[in-house]
Amino acid sequence: MAVIPVERKPLTLVERTYLPQILGGLKTTLRHFVTPKQTMEYPEQRPAIPPGYRGVPVLVKDPHGREKCVSCQLCEFVCPPKAIRITPGEISADAPDAHVERAPREFDIDMLRCIYCGLCQEVCPEEAIFLQNQYSMSGYTRAEMINHKDRLYELGGTLPDQHFKWDKKKAAEVAGNAGH
Amino acid sequence: MIAPPKPDLITVNVDGREIAVPKGTNVIEAARLVGVDVPHYCYHPKLSVSGNCRMCLIEIGMPAVDPVSRTPFPVAASGMPRINWMPRPQIGCATNVAPGMHIRTNSPLIKDCREGVMEFLLINHPLDCPICDQAGECKLQEQSTGYGRGYSRFIEQKNVKPKRTPLGPRVTLDDERCILCSRCIRFCKEIVKDDVLGFTDRGSYSTLSCFPGRALANNYSLNTVDICPVGALTSTDFRFKMRVWFLKQTNSIDAESSVGANTVVWSREGVIYRITPRRNDEVNDTWLPDSARELYKAIHASDRLVAVKVNGTDSALEFAVGAATGLFRSSAGAIAVVGSGRSSVEEQFLTRKLADALEAPTHLVSRVGQGDEILISADRNPNVRGALVVGLIQALPKTRVAGDATPSSRLTNGDVGVAAPVRTGGLTELAAQIDAGRIKAVVSLGEDLAAAGLTATQLAKISIVYLGTHANATSAVAKVAVPTLTVFEKSGTFVNQQFRLQKFSRAVPGPVGATDDLVVLAKLVAAATGTKIADEIGPLWSVLATEVPALRTVTVANLPATGLLLDGTPWAVLPFAEGATLHYKPAAEPAAAGALKS
Ligand code: SF4
Ligand code: SF4
Ligand code: SF4
Ligand code: FES
User: Fold this and answer.
1) Mutate which of A74, A124, A127 to test chain B, going by most B C-beta atoms within 10 A?
2) E-assigned strand segments in B7-128
């Protein structure tokens, strides 16, 4: 490879005083004194989360307090880093939601694995799992970084529902067909 | 059954492709041979044709012939015969092909028909897929994706039907999902001859139900779950346990009797969730007894052995082998080997090697029960013929007479199995020798000597080396006890009642502490002979091929999935315990040479 020697120009007298550089720096500093602030006092102040933000995945309940997840395990299947682990369960025949039949017995999301891709939310046929606004997860141990079912519902809370598909099913069953 | 004579082949044309098929083939099977899928629900290759789902509609036509000369009309331009298509579609399942028949499965009419049939099937279907166990292996899902319209025009309220009706101890019915194909009804009637299911009510109220006072309780009830094309019949055991798409499938063999039904073991991360049949037209068709599906539960039984014991205290494999070798030396000339009809061919071969090295007489424990004439034979050992083939035994073990039967239905020591008692025996000779003081040490390959007829006093007189999976009276008193693997945790081969060599593969890893039987046996053989012997299936099979005449030409690597029929003539005269089962007739009855063949 060819070596091209570059001659270094000697500094001029003005440059050797450093004054132009100091003044230039001061100018920038002074400009920021008067322009609006770019930073915030985290964690006292928090940024507004834009719609469509993908935070920590959580489970939600419907407005009647019914857990929406039916443990179909599609999110477990689609999850690229295999962060989700579900043990399916059955709703007992005498429970009010018996007609839904399935609910997760255990539901774990390992936040050390989750890559916040949102595929679980996209694949969920029951609209039960959402990546909401929560973005800071921290803990001292690996075990603490696994969100169990109760924690997922605590973080998720209740979301409005557009379909109430299981309520409709119940209504059809009650109104239902006299033949049965 | 004698193999049918060479079938007459007739030529048909499916979607423009000519194919020669045996006479009597229906259109679905003929199309399958050219790789064309004719969607269907009610048709099942092993059941009668009922033709009620109408999903298999196809168009058929015959070459036009001149009514006078009876010769085909050629079409002038192409020279091809003109086809007279029937104006209406026909069902493929109930249409047997005829010479020269033309079949169209992809015309616009057929596409329309399929969309129409799918739409009707889905009218009252709950579309429960997220909570349906069938999802992932559901014909309705697959075919509505492949052949359906893709949207619903039904705005009325759907029928709601009962969702968890127990039909029997092992089967739960979800009525809403039933598409009324009647496969389950035909299975019970035609295969098990236990006609308990039927449809009640009419139209969209039609419901599958058991006849009053009856239950779907026969030992084949779970086959209805397998053949149900939708999620209507579900296994109460497997219900809501795991999604099928997570499960790994491993080919295995039903070890509960000498039928050797082919199975698939479904596991995830080392846990078995279910066992289903694997089609083998020469052995089990597409069926499997319910009892075979519960065998895996023995893996996690509380009496599973997981620690090597020497003189009752925890030890390690090397010390156990050392202790056994010491025992062999101290009682040289007074050792007996009790082999097992539940061991694989490879294990039985190493057992024979061990017996040869110790110059010990060999015995086999017999296990005889009542055969059900379908897929459970009287001989409850899966591999007695393997012991004959490798030369572990020369004659069949003597069965104990019914009088002193030990009622034991335990197949692999788990609490499963067929209700009828199984008589375990075959050790009378050994018992006499122990009484006479001629035998001082016994190596038992997983066999409970007490259950097989030795008394506590006889057991106390001998030192036992026990290789087995579960605790029992023998393992409790054994000098050396080494935990080994169940059939789900190791690979190997069995020889079934037809002398069909079939292989099973390891589905899940064994528990910590248990060692592969082959490894333990190879170590014992090495200690007894002073020369190393292969302890893995692959290398062991090269030894087997050179030393066992019947296996000379066999390699386990390319053993077909459906097994390989060995020549059983050298043993044809032996009085085997089996009666007739699905694809087996005992040699004595028809006294035909081909009787051992299916
Ligand atoms: S995809 Fe939705 S309904 Fe299914 S298991 Fe996940 S959260 Fe539950
Ligand atoms: S039977 Fe098939 S289509 Fe119907 S709910 Fe179950 S998986 Fe879905
Ligand atoms: S339960 Fe299943 S097999 Fe039986 S008729 Fe209904 S769909 Fe067919
Ligand atoms: S498969 Fe032919 S009508 Fe059902």
Assistant:
1) A74
2) 9-14, 17-22, 57-63, 83-85, 90-91, 102-104
Which tokens hold the place of B468? 């087995």
Q: What is the mean pLDDT of chain A?
A: 92
Residue of A nearest to B244 (CA): A73
Rounded distance between C-alpha atoms, residue B576 and residue B395, angstroms: 10
The rounded distance, in Å, linking the Cα atoms of B594 and B24 is 25
Q: How far out from the chain centre does Cα B391 lie?
A: 26
Mean of pLDDT values over A24-51: 92
DSSP 3-state assignment of A33?
helix
Domains, chain A, ordered by start: 57-162 (3.30.70.3270)
Distance CA B563, CA B582 (A): 17
Q: Strand, coil or helix: what is B409? A: coil
Provide the token pair at B71: 């010769």
CB-CB contact of A28 with A35 (8 Å)? no
B280-323 residue pLDDT tens:
999 999 999 999 999 999 999 999 999 999 999 999 999 999 99
Query: Alpha-carbon distance B490 to B270, whole Å?
Result: 13
pTM for this one? 0.89
Residue A126: which of B163, B127, B150 has the closest Cα? Answer: B127
Please give the number of the atom of ligand 1 that sits closest to the Cα of A123.
1
- Residue bearing tokens 């026909």: B90
Atom 4, ligand 1: residue with shortest CA distance: A72
Tokens of B485: 């693997």
Mean residue pLDDT across chain B: 90
Tell me what the mean pLDDT of segment B92-116 comes to.
95
Confidence of residue B404 (pLDDT cuts 50, 70, 90): very low
The tokens for B437 are 């003081």
Query: How far, in whole angstroms, is CA A80 from its chain's centroid?
Result: 15
* Nearest CA distance, A150 vs chain B (angstrom): 21
Residue B562 CB coordination number (10 Å):
15
As given in the structure block, the two tokens for residue B377 are: 């034979």
- Amino acid identity of residue B398, one-letter, is K
In this predicted model, what pLDDT tens digit does every residue of B1-30 receive, in sequence order? 455 556 689 999 999 999 999 999 999 999
Residue B581: strand pairing partners:
B584
ipTM of this predicted structure: 0.84
Ligand 4 in reach of B508 Cβ (< 6 A): no
- In this prediction, residue B354 carries a pLDDT of 96
> Which of B188, B222, B230 best tests ligand 3's pocket when mutated (most atoms within 8 Å of CB)?
B230
Residue with tokens 């059939």: B487
Q: Does B240 touch chain A (CB under 8 A)?
A: yes
B216/B220 Cα distance (integer angstroms) = 9
At residue B363 the predicted structure's pLDDT band, cuts being 50, 70 and 90, is very high
Distance A112 CA to ligand 1 centre (A): 20
User: What is the spatial distance between Cα B426 and Cα B392, in angstroms, rounded to a whole number?
Assistant: 14
3-state secondary structure (DSSP) of residue B479: coil
Backbone φ, ψ for residue B23 (5° rounding): -60, 145
pLDDT of B411 reads 38
Exposed, middle or buried, B170 (CB in 10 Å: 0-12/13-18/19+)? buried
DSSP designation for A133: S
In Å, how far is B512's CA from the nearest CA of chain A?
24
Question: Can you tell me the distance from the alpha carbon of B262 to that of B259, in angstroms, rounded to the nearest whole number?
Answer: 9
Provide the 10 A C-beta neighbour count for residue B53.
24
How is residue B100 written in tokens? 């020269």
Q: Check residue A38 and give its pLDDT.
A: 85
Residues 6+ apart with CB under 8 A from A71: A86, A87, A88, A89, A102, A103, A104, A105, A107, B240
B6 exposure class (CB count in 10 Å sphere: 0-12, 13-18, 19+)? exposed
pLDDT value of residue B590? 40
DSSP code for B99: T
